[in-house]
Design a protein that fits this description.
heterotrimer, A alpha+beta (about 350), B mainly alpha (about 280), C mainly alpha (about 300), A: alpha+beta, Rossmann fold, OB fold (Dihydrolipoamide Acetyltransferase, E2P), six-stranded mixed β-sheet, five-stranded antiparallel β-sheet, 8 helices, C: about 300 residues, MetI-like fold, 2 domains, about 70% helix, disordered N terminus, binds adenosine-5'-triphosphate, binds magnesium ion, cell membrane (chain A), ATP-binding (chain A)
Chain lengths: ~350, ~280, ~300
């Protein structure tokens, strides 16, 4: 197992930069999840670690050793592809043992490794089959098996579960988590799935347009998003953003929204009076209150999700969402009252950067 | 539903007409080759002679250099097919997988070779090969045929490689293979249809080539089938039965090869066409 | 940040040797092909172009000197060459049109699934595998009234007044190689067009059918526009190829009777092979090359115009 360090790593295709100044230190045994919108460079970053793409600038080190120039085969890293990339002309056993056969391991070693991996993944009955004769979930397992047989320094996953149905994805997610706990292997995992990111990661790397936006534990990203991008990207349904102007009065800051409503932050924010800011609050933190408190909101749309309900609300022309597990709200119509708990408010300055709570 | 039925009948009928048109000349070749000489003229337009014989085949095999021609053509066509397939797999792979400066130069060079009249090369190639002792030699023919067929074969192979996901060799390289090992062990086995198509295509082309063989080869010892057949035709131009027997024998290897590989060929051209 | 980078590695820090090895890799794969086409096709091409300005007689050891534009001048006076040029147009135009027309119909027929399609396809494509010289001989024999049925059938159909060999008839001779060429070349068009047809998304037809388009309207509004790029490129390549294609003519008529079937490509071959006058043959080849290049450019430009219009 190994640590992976990236120092101001960049990548461009011709003159077109796709990754810029990526700094990331992955400790031995960590499970790093890369998230970000499509095209932001997650796969590219992963493939650079694997050695499938050249590194345009910066340094990549594995176990403290600079590996920019190393071919993929000499990096001792395993990767699970979104398409699984199983060799169609080899049986399951041959697929899993290919890397060991390339390293000219003895037959006993190979048999033992394939045997234990296939047992772990429940692939024993399929060892002689070709990938064509497997279901999607079984193929996914073979791809995992191919990665684990040779005990590599690190695992890379590029959206490994995105071709599975929801049920199977859930099951495999748990299995990956269990396997990581067992093997303790350094892993880098790309996904679009919020839940996968939250449940698997020891740290999440949120990326946008080729640069890292925030690195932190899942809860850090959820509770204290570093900027508007991360705030909007993490969490579903996405965070509500309301634009306003800061107004300071005797030590307590208030935000005057564009529709005139004033929201007290209950604390002091060290920014100039009158500065433009963005107020953020997650739909699940908006509270439906009994009439008489908070502000009155018009219910535009009700979306039941099973677990709860999403209300689309409008207050004086400003629209936002509320999520609640209170089933009573499914009958909501006309006007309801809502409050925005102060402890749940996020404030971002005019550049979209979070104004930290300790920033007094 | 009679409209639909008529449509179906017309469709099958049209297909049959095409099949008849495609096969009739070959059928006639076969028919004359088994017609005894004395019936040749009296039963000129009959579809099958009242009596058939293999005498013409016997004569051709025993009294001419056809076995030699056959052997020469077989050597030339299979060596060419083999060489072209090896070279064009390598180059087709490079065109399919690498982005490199000069790629478009290579493509342009290969396109140029498809544009000009090959007859134009007859004279210079003769002049170039004769000091090397490669005229009147099968090796010379193989070299020339290989070069002529390599551009198209490369494009064909490229379209097959393009159809194989890049992920596969990337997975192999991560598994510990060098690029060349991944190419040999993972990509090539998956390209077998493409290889078959290329082999068949080139074999047929080399088996059929006439002009350069005429120009570069003199004398029976290293003549290929087309040259031999043509000399035979001009020498025995009255004995149709024998000529056609020779023709049928020239036809067999090419047709066998074609029937074996034709569905791969269609598949290869399909892949190419879909892409372009 | 306090890590230190190796000096001078701002651009990814690749070592020169690795950089070179990476850049060279594709060239290793393409080297054999490159060497072959340069040595056996492009160098001879340049040599051939130079022959057009030299006196090259194969059996004459004293030949080889530069003669400037002598061959080209002689060519401009050569009535046989102009006739060959006219014949080339006729040969190429008729062959390409008929191959395309029948090839398209065949492709449309084969695009429909039916029992036995695989076999039917193999059989109708078979002529393509027939060696061209043999195709030539085969059709020459079919046109021969002594041995072939065609003259007799044509008389019965009223196409001919007597069962003569059309290959010996100056008025009709060109039809012989053209028919052989069409027979041999239909499969090529059919295969290419079939491939393009099968790439058309089926749901387009279904959508059009639901919109109430009849089969002809569907063909014109969906099939043709989809096939157009394939048709354009195939016809361009095929035209050039057929203009250069001398085998059938050499075998069937050898340019005769009275040069009525001599095309430029077979004329080059006659000059080089029968007269051994390589210089003059190369001059003709040069002119043919220029004409074909001009034609290709024209097509490419027209196509570009059409695309820009859209
Ligand atoms: N070979 C290439 N040439 C030029 N640009 C490329 C190439 N490969 C990728 N890119 C660009 O690099 C950017 C990052 O691509 P990448 O595949 O890493 O995105 P991603 O974050 O993995 O997206 P997704 O979530 O959709 O998989 C994209 O804008 C893409 O267009
Ligand atoms: Mg990706």
């Amino acid at each position: 197992m190994a640590s992976i360090e990236l120092h101001s790593v960049g990548k461009s295709y011709g003159d077109h930069p796709v990754l810029e100044g990526v700094d990331l230190n992955i400790d031995d045994g960590e499970f790093i999840v890369l998230v970000g919108p499509s095209g932001c460079g997650k796969s590219t970053l992963l493939r650079m670690i694997a050695g499938l793409e050249d590194i345009t600038s910066g340094t990549l080190a594995i176990d403290g050793q600079r590996v920019n120039d190393l071919k993929p085969k000499d990096r001792d890293i395993a990767m699970v592809f979104q398409s699984y990339a199983l060799y169609p002309h080899m049986s399951v056993a041959e697929n899993m043992s290919y890397s060991l056969r390339l390293r000219r391991k003895s037959k006993e070693v190979i048999d033992a490794a394939v045997g234990s991996a296939s047992q772990k993944l429940g692939l024993d009955p399929y060892l002689a089959r070709r990938p064509k004769a497997l279901s999607g979930g079984q193929r996914q397992r073979v791809a995992m098996g191919r990665a684990i047989v040779r005990k590599p320094k690190a695992f890379l996953f590029d959206e490994p579960l995105s071709n599975l149905d929801a049920r199977l994805r859930e099951q495999m997610r748990a299995e990956i988590k269990r396997m990581h706990a067992e093997l303790g292997a350094t892993s880098v995992y790309v996904t679009h799935d919020q839940i996968e990111a939250m449940t698997l990661a020891s740290r999440i790397v949120a990326m946008n347009a080729g640069s890292v936006q925030q690195i932190g534990s899942p809860l850090e990203l959820y509770d204290r998003p570093a900027n508007l991008f991360v705030a909007g990207f993490i969490g579903s349904p996405g965070m509500n953003f309301l634009e306003g102007r800061l107004s300071q009065s005797n030590g307590v800051s208030e935000i005057v929204l564009s529709n005139g409503i004033q929201v007290s932050l209950g604390r002091h924010v060290a920014r100039a009076d009158g500065e433009m800011v963005t107020l953020g609050i997650r739909p699940e933190h908006v509270v439906a209150a009994s009439s008489g408190t908070g502000v009155e909101a018009q219910v535009e749309l009700v979306e039941p999700t099973g677990l709860g309900v999403i209300l689309h609300l409008v207050v004086h022309g400003e629209s936002f969402k509320l999520f609640s597990t209170d089933r009573m709200l499914m009958q909501a119509q006309g006007a309801i009252h809502v409050t925005l708990p102060q402890s749940r408010l996020h404030v971002f300055d005019k550049d979209g950067v979070r104004i930290s709570e300790d920033d007094v | 539903m009679t409209g639909k039925l008529i449509g179906t009948i017309a469709h099958r009928g049209a297909i049959l007409v095409y099949i008849a048109f495609a096969l009739f000349p070959l059928f006639w070749l076969l028919k004359v080759s088994v017609t005894p000489n004395d019936l040749l003229y009296s039963e000129g337009v009959r579809l099958w002679p009242s009596r058939s014989t293999f005498d013409h085949y016997h004569f051709v095999i025993e009294n001419s250099a056809f076995p030699t021609f056959f052997k020469n053509s077989l050597i030339v066509a299979s060596s060419t097919a083999f060489a072209v397939t090896v070279f064009s797999s390598l180059a087709g792979y490079a065109l399919s997988r690498f982005r490199f400066r000069g790629k478009y130069v290579i493509i342009a060079l290969m396109l140029i070779t498809q544009m000009f009249p090959l007859v134009m090369l007859v004279a210079p190639i003769f002049k170039m090969l004769s000091p090397l002792g490669l005229t009147n030699s099968l090796t010379g023919l193989v070299i020339v045929y290989t070069a002529f067929n390599v551009p198209f074969a490369t494009f064909l192979m490229q379209s097959f490689f393009d159809g194989i996901p890049k992920d596969l060799e990337e997975a192999a390289m991560i598994d510990g293979a060098s690029r060349f090992t991944a190419f040999r062990q993972i990509i090539l086995p998956l390209t077998l249809p493409g290889i078959a198509a290329t082999l068949g295509f080139v074999f047929t082309a080399a088996w059929s080539e006439l002009l350069f063989a005429l120009m570069l080869i003199s004398g029976n010892a290293s003549a290929t089938f087309p040259v031999g057949l043509l000399t035979f035709v001009s020498k025995f131009s009255v004995d149709f039965g024998q000529m056609m027997a020779a023709g049928v024998m020239a036809l067999i290897p090419a047709c066998l090869f074609f029937l074996l590989i034709q569905r791969y060929l269609v598949q290869g051209l399909t892949a190419g066409a879909v892409k372009g | 940040m306090s890590y230190h980078q190796v000096a001078g590695t701002r651009t990814g820090g690749k070592r020169p040797l690795r950089r070179f090895a990476d850049a060279a890799e594709p060239w290793f794969y393409s080297a054999p092909v490159l060497v072959l086409i340069i040595a056996v096709m492009l160098v001879p091409l340049l040599l051939g172009l130079s022959y057009a300005f030299r006196d090259i007689q194969l059996l004459n050891p004293f030949s080889g000197g530069f003669v400037g534009l002598k061959h080209l001048k002689a060519l401009s006076q050569d009535a046989a060459f102009y006739r060959a040029l006219k014949n080339t147009l006729w040969w190429t135009g008729a062959s390409v049109f008929l191959q395309f027309f029948f090839g398209l119909i065949l492709a449309l027929l084969l695009d429909k699934p039916f029992a036995g399609r695989g076999i039917a396809q193999a059989l109708v494509f078979l002529p393509w595998a027939v060696p061209t010289f043999l195709a030539g001989l085969n059709w020459a024999w079919l046109f021969n009234p002594v041995i072939g049925p065609l003259p007799h059938w044509m008389v019965s159909l009223g196409l001919l007044s007597a069962p003569n060999n059309i290959l010996a008839d100056p008025q009709l001779a060109m039809w012989g190689p053209i028919i052989a060429n069409v027979w041999w070349g239909i499969p090529f068009f059919a295969i290419t067009l079939l491939a393009a047809l099968q790439a058309i998304p089926r749901d387009l037809y279904e959508a059009a059918a639901i919109d109430g388009a009849n089969p002809l309207q569907r063909f014109i509004s969906i099939t043709l526009p989809f096939l157009a790029p394939t048709i354009a490129i195939t016809i361009l390549l095929r035209t050039v190829w057929i203009a250069n294609f001398a085998d059938l003519i050499v075998v069937m008529t050898n340019g005769g009777p009275a040069d009525r079937t001599q095309i430029v490509a077979s004329y080059i071959f006659t000059q080089a092979f029968r007269r051994l006058d390589f210089g003059y043959a190369s001059a003709i080849a040069l002119v043919l090359l220029v004409l074909l290049l001009a034609y290709s450019m024209l097509i490419v430009v027209i196509r570009q115009r059409l695309i820009e219009k859209d």
